[in-house]
Amino acid sequence: MTTPVLRVNDLRVHFFLDEGLVRAVDGVSFEVHPGQVVGIVGESGCGKSVTMKAILQIVEPPGRIVGGQILFQKDSGAAIDLTRLSPKGAELRAIRGAEIALIPQEPMAAFSPVHSVGEQIIEALTLHERQWRPRGPRLSRAEARSMTVDLFRSVGISMPAERIDAYSWQLSGGLRQRAMIAMALSCRPRILIADEPTTAVDVTTQAQILNLLRDLQRQHGTAIVFITHDLGVIAQMARYVVVMYLGRVMEQGAVEEIFHAPKHPYTRALLKSIPSMNVPPRTLLPTIAGSIPHPLGRPRGCPFHPRCPDAIPGVCAERVPALRPIGSTQLASCFLYNRDEASEP
Amino acid sequence: MAPMTRYVLKRLVLLPALLFLFSVAVFAIVQAPPGDFLTTYVATLASSGSSISAEQVEALRREYGLDRPIWVQYLKWMENLAKGNLGLSLEYQRPNAELIGERLVLTMVLALLSFVFTWVVAIPAGIYSAMHPRSAIDYALTLVNYVGVATPNFMLALVLMWGAFAYLDMSVTGLFSPDFVEAPWSVARVVDLLKHVWLPAVVLGVAGTARLTRVMRANLLDELNKPYVTTARAKGLSEWRLVVRYPARLALNPLVSTIGWYLPALFSGSLIVATVMNLPNIGPLLLRALINQDMYLAGSILLIYCFLTIVGTLISDILLAWLDPRIRFEEGMR
Ligand SMILES: Nc1ncnc2c1ncn2[C@@H]1O[C@H](COP(=O)(O)OP(=O)(O)OP(=O)(O)O)[C@@H](O)[C@H]1O
Ligand code: SF4
Ligand SMILES: [Mg+2]
User: Fold this and answer.
1) From the list B227, B239, B325, which residue is nearest A106 (CB)?
2) For chain A, what percentages of helix, strand and coil (3-state, to nearest 5) are there?
3) Which residues contact residue B98 at a Cβ distance below 8 angstroms, ignoring those fewer than 6 apart?
4) ipTM for the predicted complex
5) Which of B292, B281, B266 is CA-nearest to residue B100?
6) Angle ∠(B119,A167,B120) on CA atoms, nearest 5
7) Ligand 1 lining (C-beta closer than 6 Å)
8) Range A233-257 burial, b when 16+ CB lie within 10 A, else e
9) What is the pLDDT of residues A139-182, one digit of tens each?
10) Does some domain include residue A261?
11) First to last CA, chain A
């Protein structure tokens, strides 16, 4: 087993709003190994994006990391805890974009509308120049430009030399997403976080972008954290999957194990709600009972208990189950698989 | 043609048409009071004991076409204007061009300085406030801004003048020391002007600075929540660099479109301050011209106002298009 490049351990990110405390991320743990694709799934609002922003320490106020560790394995030796670095400090800024890159969720507005996309990529290249090229002459403007053209070509943008001078609003959704991927990959990061990179594009483009990411991942051995609502996409892309609900990890493990033998009641419900080829057409899809609670009205105990068909009376509503190993790669946080913990006083 | 060039050309084509409309409107306004200006003139002269010969009156009547229909008068006025002849001031007995020219320069200097003061103070203050919302300095700036907006500027002028006089033993009225008021332009006169002009420039700029700080703060706070800021931050840019380069730049755009209003607003808005501080700028001149029915003087000043407004708007439109490619492309393509 390799050493993980990234280890998120019991991460907690809370938003201190005037109306109350939102525990957007409340104890999330997972690992990312070099060159691995980790999928993160969960319903809207379960804290996926906030977790990713926390890794780079760019959660916007009033949000704050209130607990846990984010251990990042540097190229040289020791792992560092990113939560201990100052969010505005040089050390963390040298990791952002250069070692861990983010493809943000909103591709429409993720580029500045008044700067050409090429300019914004050149900026990243210049900024981290000494990291992706420790030696050699300083990067000239012309060289940065031609590198950007190459990047555009490598993500499958036709007429790259013209396109780098375009503004983001002049590009189609698919092209914009490719340009964003080009920017994220520009400094050859070791971890790429892709926050729902395919939700805003049509199905054909979605397939192309997924293929592109997979190819790039194979070529460069970049680890990818892939966020989506779509379990089908996870099955195509990821080796390992993390299922989140209300700011906590419900279950995680190798994709085959989770898909074929889901253990957690939430994962089971989630898998049942995807349409399958074997179901006769026009039958009502099973949905998860109940609805997601309001962010301010988080349930006590297991966050899923108000909707859980298997909830254990007197236990699930009282205490929070911890994430425990239940198979070779599988972990779940559910009292059903941890009777000892459930029966503790 | 580049979108930018097209955009500018389209604006320039509109310029003469707008000027024509304004000139008609201005003419109609200065013509509105009963009686023509020659009658007023003769009466004024008579009341002050001097007189004017019948031939002179006749000559003036012909020069301005006063015996002809109104549209001829308008055309005569335009013809004179085109020749650079703004007419004669009745009250001052001097060519209007001379009267206005001198004051126009001082007004522009004052406007430019108070504009620079406003922007140099307000933009950084607004950026700081937005980057540190609810911090002690943000609250302090907010307070100062409310006071700044709420204080009438003539009041501020009075307080400062009194302060300077009482504690610094300085007389800060006017734009020149007594020795230089009537002197011809020279280096020494310019230096003297610079010594005096900053106070009125600050007085005239305070309310605008306060407003601009608030607007900049609000605009930037909006922009800071946009996804492209997250992208820039995730890229590893330092906070100041990224704010200045991205959201501040976008927050400025709507402000740039207000630059054009600045000059005319300062022209007319500064009347009370100019009177209180005894500033030789154009506001008081216009007021007197209107009161005395010095119609070609008033007409000329109003027309210059209009011209400056149009040019100002043009400048801010061009600046905005230059700053914001979305506008450049949209307008240039239409
Ligand atoms: N800026 C913010 N201010 C207040 N609360 C926030 C903020 N950003 C996120 N949250 C809270 O954090 C929770 C998780 O948000 P997050 O964006 O991580 O969800 P997500 O899992 O990415 O959802 P989606 O699939 O819709 O992108 C939300 O329910 C919201 O209440
Ligand atoms: S802990 Fe209880 S409520 Fe939560 S998922 Fe397991 S059985 Fe359901
Ligand atoms: Mg999200």
Assistant:
1) B227
2) 35, 25, 45
3) none
4) 0.87
5) B281
6) 5
7) A 15, 17, 22, 24, 42, 44-50, 60, 63, 105, 229, 295
8) bbebbbbbbbbbbbbbbbbbbbbeb
9) 888 989 999 999 999 888 989 999 999 999 999 888 998 899 99
10) yes
11) 37
For residue B146, being part of any structural domain is answered with yes
Q: Which residues 6+ apart lie within 8 Å of B171 measured at CB?
A: B164, B165
What's the total number of domains in chain B?
1
Q: Is residue B307 part of a domain?
A: no
Considering only CA atoms, which of A271, A317, A321 is closest in space to residue A298?
A317
Q: Which domain holds residue A166?
A: 111-188
- Our answer on whether the CB atom of A305 is closer than 6 Å to any ligand 2 atom is yes
| Residues of chain B with C-beta less than 8 angstroms from the C-beta of A88 | 238-239
A76: its two tokens: 């040289």
Same domain, A10 and A42: yes
Q: Is residue B17 part of a domain?
A: no
B80 in a domain, yes or no?
no
User: A192 pLDDT exceeds 60?
Assistant: yes
- Nearest ligand 2 atom to the CA of A335 is 1
* A102 has a pLDDT exceeding 90: yes
Q: Which string of DSSP letters, residue by residue, matches A307-345?
A: G-TTPPTTTTTTSPPPPEE-SSS-EE--GGG-HHHHH--
- Closest by CA to A192, choosing from A52, A77, A92, is A52
Residues of the domain holding B156? 106-284
pLDDT at residue number B267: 67
What CATH number is attached to the domain comprising B136?
Answer: 1.10.3720
Last residue of a domain, one of A188, A211, A237: A188
Residues 86-125 of A with CB under 8 A from B: 88, 90, 93-98, 101-102, 104-106, 108-115, 120, 123-124
**3-state DSSP percent of chain B in helix, strand and coil, to 5:** 80, 0, 20
Residues 158-217 of A with CB under 8 A from B: 167, 169-170, 180, 183
Minimal-distance CA residue of chain B relative to A193: B234
β-strand partners of A324: A332
Task: Give the residue among A213, A203, A159, A208 at the shortest CA–CA distance from A182.
Answer: A213
Angle between helices B54-64 and B37-47 in degrees, nearest 10 = 150
Q: Within a domain: residue A104?
A: no
B10: distance to nearest CA of chain A, Å? 22
Which region, left, alpha or beta, applies to residue A290 given φ > 0 means left and ψ of -120 to 50 means alpha? left
How far does CA A134 lie from the centroid of its chain? 29
Selecting from B228, B236, B324 the residue whose C-beta is nearest the C-beta of A109 gives: B228
CB contact under 8 A, B230 and A124: no
Q: How far apart are CA A198 and CA A267, in angstroms?
A: 22
Judge if the upstream peptide bond of residue A62 is cis by omega within 30 degrees of 0. Answer: yes
What are residue A17's DSSP bridge partners? A20
**Inside any domain, residue A119:** yes
Residues A70, A160 contacting (CB under 8 angstroms):
no
Per-residue pLDDT of chain B (334 residues; tens, 9 = 90+): 677 788 788 878 888 888 889 889 888 887 777 666 677 777 777 777 777 777 877 887 777 777 778 888 888 888 888 887 777 777 777 788 888 888 888 888 888 888 899 999 999 999 999 999 889 999 999 999 999 888 888 888 888 888 888 887 777 777 787 777 777 888 888 888 887 888 888 888 888 899 999 999 999 999 998 999 999 999 999 999 999 999 999 999 888 888 877 767 766 667 778 888 888 778 888 888 887 777 788 888 888 888 888 888 888 888 888 888 888 887 655 5
- Which ligand is located closest to the Cα atom of residue A47? 1
Angle subtended by helix axes B282-291 and B295-323, to nearest 10: 140
Which residue of B lies nearest to A95 if distances are taken between CA atoms? B236
